[in-house]
Amino acid sequence: MRVSLSHSLRLASLLTKQKTFRLHHFTTTATPEHSSGSTRDRPEPPPIRVGLTDSAGRGVFATRPIGAGELIHTAKPAVCYPSLNVLDTVCYYCLRRISNSNGSEAQRVSFCSEDCKRRCMEFYDVETKADWAAFDDYCRTHDLKYPFMVKRLACMVISGVARSDSLDILQPANLTSQMISRMEEEYGLLRNAFRKTLISDEHVAYYLSSNFQVLTKQWYIGVLARIRINAFRIELAAGLYEDLLSSAAASVEAEAAVGHAVYILPSFYNHDCDPNAHIIWIDNADAKLKALRDVDEGEELRICYIDASLDRDARQELLSRGFGFQCNCNRCLHGD
Ligand SMILES: C[S@@+](CC[C@H](N)C(=O)[O-])C[C@H]1O[C@@H](n2cnc3c(N)ncnc32)[C@H](O)[C@@H]1O
After folding, report:
1. Whole domain around residue 329: which residue ranges?
2. Among 289, 323, 331, which is best to mutate for testing ligand 1, by the most ligand atoms less than 8 A from CB?
């Protein structure tokens, strides 16, 4: 299907806005081999465009032939959060593994570098001023991971380092009334966490007064609905996998998850059970999108959201339950 020009332009403008207001959190770079001469310092835009597909909403298309194994682009998370069981062994900001935890007893989180610490402090300051006991306890008891990302985003918004609408461009999940009720309960705990302690802090109170009112119940539910469909579980591949060409993300032998993250551009990649691209993480939450095979100009780039080695019924069940769609990729259509 041809993409309408007005749609492309509207999307391009939205993406441009996203880039400008969140440069710190959303950057992409093209493969370095394609920069040369005077443009060396200015990375070329990635060889892709976002457009409409026939049957899967928006998708990512190659704007030139892309070779197997080529790094298509990288992406920094819009928001990420470490898995609770590795809180003391990964960087609280970028999710890099750290062998010697440098978190103090009081702080209980660690950073891999001064740079990560500095970036994180922009919003971690706000986080530490609130009382998260009830919120954290609720999430742990109910084995919920995504609300921790909303908690971080809320702190980023209050601190002024992220906009409250920074995930609005992403597709939201359809929510049942049961899901909404639970989110409302979580939201109450989030509000209380801030209410309990922030008022006494002048510095935070200042940010709170200008940024907190946008963090409504609708905001919380909207963000979670987007995280639900677009969050990636991050498993760091060892360095030697950097040049691995032939395995889909789900089949890369990786260590256990270090956390979850949401990105902007990578969220536009649709799913295929026989994908031509994959997303990998080498050192930290920075995502690398790579071509798994030669891709023609104009071809849609798709990644695999799940374990591609599962049988058709299991894949369909997972995709329907987790993402709310019926996969009609060639593999599924041929019953493979
Ligand atoms: C991460 S988003 C991908 C981008 C999305 N198409 C959009 O417009 O923002 C995932 C959603 O895209 C759609 N999708 C992705 N892969 C699909 C597929 N193979 N078949 C049908 N829908 C698909 C589903 O609605 C799914 O919930």
Report:
1. 5-76+235-333
2. 323
Structure-token pair, residue 269: 């990649």
Helix, strand, coil shares, percent, the chain, to 5? 40, 15, 40
Q: Greater confidence, 200 or 141?
A: 141
| pLDDT mean over 61-81 | 98
CA distance 267 to 73: 13
Residue 17 Cα to ligand 1 midpoint, Å, equals 22
For ligand 1, residues with CB inside 6 Å are 55-59, 171, 229-230, 267-268, 270-272, 323-325, 327-329
Which residues partner with 259 through β-bridges?
Answer: 82, 234
Same domain, 129 and 222: yes
End-to-end Cα spacing for the chain: 26
Q: Which of 229, 264, 289 is the last residue of a domain?
A: 229
For 235, list phi and psi in degrees, rounded to 5. -120, 120
Tokens standing for 20? Answer: 């400008």
Q: What is the DSSP letter of 243?
A: G
The first and second tokens of residue 296, run together, are: 């023609």
